[in-house]
């Protein structure tokens, strides 16, 4: 009998403690467990937004491309090449050109610092017969405006990242329509590596403080 | 009394030659000097301690206003205090009602008056927000003759800003830092910068202790990689939690902002931030007039003053208009990716879903909306 009473008391006390713990819990009641949860739930009923980045692209000459499930804008290229179209000078094919004696070497300033000689030379991308277009490894025509198709033959992971948006600078704004730089807008195709240079900022105050 | 005793007791009983009294005046005009002197000489140590304790208790019951106003004072001190406060009010009233003062001076003091007594931006309705930005823009015009465009644009629904940083791509050029300073009107004197680029040695992991964030040599340096930090706009921001006056909060689009006019400069948020994301204006910020970015937002790059906190706002004046933040725009390598986390088709979402991303000090539970990844 006594034992029973003791048990009841114990139950009462423990339930009271439990109740107190629950009711006095100061922890804020978070709606989501993590930011990833929040993003997943809240983007379920995403209906699009009115903000647009179109205004910031007005001055740029862009072309729309679709690669897989991604459709976006890239800068037009032909207008940026100084001596395009090539046939304005190259009235005959390279083969014919070589027949001339004492011909002056054009494009002498272009040195190919891109992969090694076993992998590529001028003719890997340029065609001696059709200079206004690029050519693929299997001799298929590639438009200068879509030169990324040339790069993607080797750089497959970069191409995948670029399509998705992890590689390549975004132009204008974050909202739609999306415009991203194409490969050749950041990389010189003949020398694609970024050069070393001095940083554009140095904090003299911090340097002084840390002396 | 022993010598050591003298040391600790501060000779409170021998205060015959002391000049001070309760009113803080040394001229002896408050009338309590004689009495207090005789009291000091007559009471014992115990009595004195008891009296001190009693006065402390009385004080601890009072708070705020009471501590200032509910005090015993004689006529002279009361008049002194009254006059001082009246002078402040009268100054404002006289300039605004004066016949001699010009219209501009009047308008200026009217603006100053209204700005002084405005509320917290977070609690304002849209009209009040518009009014305060109009006042601030007009005030700037009256002072400098130049016009600024201060926006009070609110967060848009279905937008949650997020940021990704490609460690493989950053070359340490710091073009982002320069662009940020120019865009956000940071103090040029103290060379304040929101972004830091850390130069880290390959093979040593993310070692911030040994990283250099103020280098000046050709970059990228052999055997090093670069990693940028700034405000991460945490979804569970500790800086917001600690602010005693609610001058900083998270907007609906996830941007952690500061009301520079509500901030009291206690710097609790600076101490609470585990990422060194916040900066303090130790002096009056100075920017050459021709370098001031005139496109501003109340919560963003409008001009700050001495004694307030500031930090990266994801360039709220740009991002709320659909533009990329200045750092994203300036980065020549495309290492910086910014976008809407709620748009399943955005590039930032693609990065989160397809790259191996991580965040700094994830274990703290701060939930930064700033992810790092590598190629």
How is this structure best described in words?
- The complex is a heterodimer of chains A (about 210) and B (about 375).
- Chain A is an alpha+beta fold and about 210 residues long.
- Chain A has a domain at about 50-195.
- In chain A, about 30% of the residues lie in helices and about 10% in strands.
- Chain A contains 8 helices and 4 strands.
- Chain A has helices spanning about 1-25, 35-40, 95-100, 120-125, 150, 155-165, 185, 205-210, and strands spanning about 60-65, 70-75, 135, 140.
- Chain A has a two-stranded antiparallel ribbon with strand order 1-2.
- In chain A, β1 (about 60-65) and β2 form a beta hairpin.
- The relative contact order of chain A is 0.12.
- Chain B has about 375 residues and is of the alpha/beta class.
- Among the domains of chain B are: about 80-115; about 160-375, Alpha-Beta Plaits.
- Helices cover about 35% and strands about 10% of the residues of chain B.
- Chain B has 13 helices and 11 strands.
- Chain B has helices spanning about 5-10, 35-40, 45-60, 65-70, 75-95, 105-115, 125-145, 175-185, 240, 270, 315-320, 325-330, 345-355, and strands at about 150, 160-165, 195-200, 225-230, 250, 255-260, 280, 295, 310, 335-340, 370-375.
- In chain B, the strands form 5 sheets. In chain B, strands 10-2-11 form a 3-stranded mixed β-sheet, with helices on one face. Chain B has a two-stranded parallel ribbon with strand order 1-8. In chain B, strands 3-4 form a two-stranded antiparallel sheet.
- In chain B, α5 packs across α6 and α6 (about 105-115) crosses α7.
- The longest helix of chain B has 23 residues, at about 75-95.
- Chain B starts with a helix and ends with a strand.
- The relative contact order of chain B is 0.13.
- At the A-B interface, α2, α6 and α8 of A face β2, α8, β10 and α13 of B.
């Amino acid at each position: 009998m006594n034992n029973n009473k003791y048990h009841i008391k114990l139950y009462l006390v423990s339930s009271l403690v439990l109740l107190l713990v629950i009711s006095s819990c100061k922890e804020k009641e978070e709606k989501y467990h993590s930011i990833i949860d929040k993003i997943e739930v809240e983007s379920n009923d995403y209906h699009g937004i009115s903000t647009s980045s179109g205004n910031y692209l007005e001055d740029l000459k862009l072309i729309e491309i679709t690669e897989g499930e991604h459709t976006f804008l890239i800068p037009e290229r032909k207008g940026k090449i100084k001596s395009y179209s090539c046939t304005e000078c190259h009235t005959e094919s390279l083969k014919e050109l070589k027949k001339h004696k004492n011909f002056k070497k054009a494009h002498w300033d272009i040195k190919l610092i891109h992969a090694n000689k076993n992998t590529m030379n001028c003719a890997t991308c340029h065609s001696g017969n059709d200079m206004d277009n690029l050519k693929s490894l299997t001799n298929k025509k590639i438009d200068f405006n879509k030169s990324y198709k040339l790069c993607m033959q080797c750089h497959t992971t970069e191409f995948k990242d670029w399509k998705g948006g992890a590689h390549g600078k975004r132009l204008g704004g974050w909202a739609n329509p999306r415009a991203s730089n194409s490969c050749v807008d950041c990389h010189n195709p003949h020398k694609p590596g970024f050069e070393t240079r001095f940083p554009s900022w140095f904090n003299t105050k911090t340097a002084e403080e840390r002396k | 009394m022993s010598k050591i005793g003298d040391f600790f007791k501060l000779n409170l009983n021998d205060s015959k030659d002391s000049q001070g009294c309760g009113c803080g005046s040394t001229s002896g005009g408050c009338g309590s000097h004689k009495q207090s002197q005789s009291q000091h000489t007559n009471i014992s140590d115990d009595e004195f301690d008891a009296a001190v304790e009693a006065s402390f208790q009385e004080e601890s019951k009072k708070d705020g206003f009471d501590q200032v106003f509910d005090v015993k004072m004689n006529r002279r001190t009361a008049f002194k205090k009254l006059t001082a406060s009246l002078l402040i009010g009268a100054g404002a009233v006289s300039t605004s009602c004066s016949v001699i003062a010009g219209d501009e001076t009047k308008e200026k003091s009217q603006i100053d008056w209204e700005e002084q007594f405005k509320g917290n931006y977070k609690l304002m309705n849209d009209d009040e927000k518009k009014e305060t930005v109009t006042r601030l823009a007009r005030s700037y015009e009256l002072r400098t003759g130049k016009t600024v465009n201060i926006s009070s644009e609110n967060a848009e629904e279905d937008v949650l800003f997020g940021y990704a940083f490609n460690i493989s791509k950053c070359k340490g050029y710091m073009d982002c830092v320069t662009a940020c300073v120019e865009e956000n009107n940071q103090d040029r004197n103290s060379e304040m910068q929101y972004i830091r680029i850390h130069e880290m040695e390959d093979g040593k992991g993310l070692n911030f202790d040994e990283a250099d964030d103020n280098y000046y040599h050709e970059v990228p340096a052999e055997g090093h990689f670069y990693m940028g930090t700034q405000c991460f706009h945490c979804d569970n921001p500790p800086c917001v939690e600690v602010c005693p006056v609610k001058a900083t909060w998270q907007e609906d689009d996830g941007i952690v902002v500061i009301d520079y006019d509500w901030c009291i400069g206690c710097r609790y948020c600076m101490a609470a931030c585990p990422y060194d994301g916040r900066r303090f204006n130790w002096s009056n910020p100075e920017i050459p007039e021709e370098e001031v970015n005139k496109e501003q937002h109340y919560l963003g790059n409008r001009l700050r003053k001495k004694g307030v906190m500031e930090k990266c706002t994801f360039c709220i004046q740009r991002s709320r208009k659909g533009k990329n933040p200045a750092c994203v725009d300036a980065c020549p390598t495309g290492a910086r990716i910014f976008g809407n986390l709620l748009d399943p088709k955005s590039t930032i979402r693609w990065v989160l879903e397809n790259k191996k991303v991580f965040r700094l000090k994830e274990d703290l539970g701060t939930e930064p909306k700033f992810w790092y990844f590598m190629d």
